[in-house]
Amino acid sequence: MDSLPILDDHMHLDRRGRFLNAARDFARNGGTHIILVSKPPWTINININKPDDYRRVFDETVAIAEAVRETGIGVFVLLGVHPAGITQFTNQRTLEDAVGTMKKGLEIAGKYVEEGLAIGLKSGRPHYPVSEEVWVGSNQIMEHAMILAKELDCPLQLHTEETTEKTLQDIKEMIKKTGIPSNRIIKHYAPPMIKEFAEIGIYPSIIASGSNTEEALQISTRFMMETDYIDDPDRPGAVLGPKTVPKRTKKLIKRHGIEPFYKIHKENPEKIYKIEIKL
Ligand SMILES: [Zn+2]
After folding, report:
1. 12 CA distance to ligand 1 centroid (A)?
2. Phi and psi of 97, rounded to 5°?
3. At what angle do helices 95-114 and 54-69 cross, to 10 degrees?
4. Residues 127-132, mean pLDDT to the nearest whole number
5. Residue 95: exposed, middle, or buried by beta-carbon count in 10 A (0-12, 13-18, 19+)?
6. pLDDT tens digit string along 131-151?
7. Which of 120, 130, 193, 212 has the greatest count of CB atoms below 10 A from its CB?
8. pLDDT at 92
9. 82 Cα: distance to centroid of ligand 1 (angstroms)
10. What's the gap in Å between 175 CA and the centre of ligand 1?
11. What is the pTM of this model?
12. pLDDT for residue 91
């Protein structure tokens, strides 16, 4: 058991939240690696007036990763623009400007990938109803992220509306159009639709709540596990806590054995992100 890495595939940390204490909770329960995702700028009091302002968000994520590594946890960084940004920004400016700013934000994130400060990108489209024109703009942003990830040869995590067959078909078409290899795309906050994801070649990051992981395991080990822990000081306990992935993994090992979890926490992320997960 001690030799099993345990990876949370999508987590945020915030210095005004539980920060290192949350990371230590994760580690104390057996967690060893984190895919750390940049926070939405407005949740860390950063205003995006121009694309370069995203650097403040990314620098903060990189600094947090460095601090967490000092506790002994392996941290890999994904940087990008939060899909809800389009709604935030269009309150103050035109849609065209908002879309342009977010596309440039992704390009800046790409520079961090080139410099080795991040392993990949994060993008997507809103998970709540929006107008037709905002939807079109959001799809342009997501498509731009796929083009960039293809050029950079890096992975891309997607945040989208609730996963349905239609969502997956849309993603499949965009993958075809942009030419990004589907096995570099990870669907964040995924339900256990393991077969459906396998059919279009992208990887689900299963949200480790309720019976999701158990249901996914009944089908195969072609997935990762995440909490989407947001470490929001104003909403403690709003989502799954940092201990969830290691705790659930250990519980499920009793029934399923340890073998499937080498796949889920080591082999899958190593292949998809092109990283090395070692203890
Ligand atoms: Zn998130």
Report:
1. 6
2. -65, -40
3. 40
4. 94
5. middle
6. 999 999 999 999 999 999 999
7. 120
8. 83
9. 9
10. 22
11. 0.97
12. 81
